Amino acid sequence: MIMDGCQGKPRTPTISEKICPNCGAEIELFSTDTEVCCEKCGFVAYNDALSCVQWCKYAKQCVGEEMYQSMMEIAARNKEKADAERKARREAKERAAENH
């Protein structure tokens, strides 16, 4: 059961970085954005943050304990995967720079 209206809307949006899948440039994405265009190539990147469940103190009340736990597990796996991908890209760039 989702509560009427969002009880935990943040006062200040957060910002994250995403790598453009088209050109590899960094894209700044605010938590309030649903999509943003890459400034370098124009590719439309979508905000794939799982949901407000990740930060909202009312999330358990809003979606229920079982759904909350499930969504947090998915978010943790997604974060680990994204961190590993960023690390691999950074290491590849470093190796390429060393070879030049």
What would you note in describing this structure?
This protein is of the alpha+beta class. It has 2 helices and 4 strands. A two-stranded antiparallel sheet has the order 1-2. Strands 3-4 form a two-stranded antiparallel sheet. A hairpin with a 6-residue loop joins strand 1 (15-19) and strand 2. It is extended.
Entry keywords:
alpha+beta, 100 residues, two-stranded antiparallel sheet, 2 helices, two-stranded antiparallel ribbon, extended
The helicity comes to 40-55%
Number of strands: 4
Number of helices: 2
Classification by helices and strands: alpha+beta
Return the string of H and E elements: EEEEHH
Shape by Cα distribution: extended
Task: Give the topology, please.
Blueprint: E1 15-19, E2 26-30, E3 35-37, E4 44-46, H1 59-63, H2 65-99
Antiparallel strand pairs: 1-2, 3-4
In short:
This protein is of the alpha+beta class and 100 residues long. Helix content is 40%, strand content 16%.
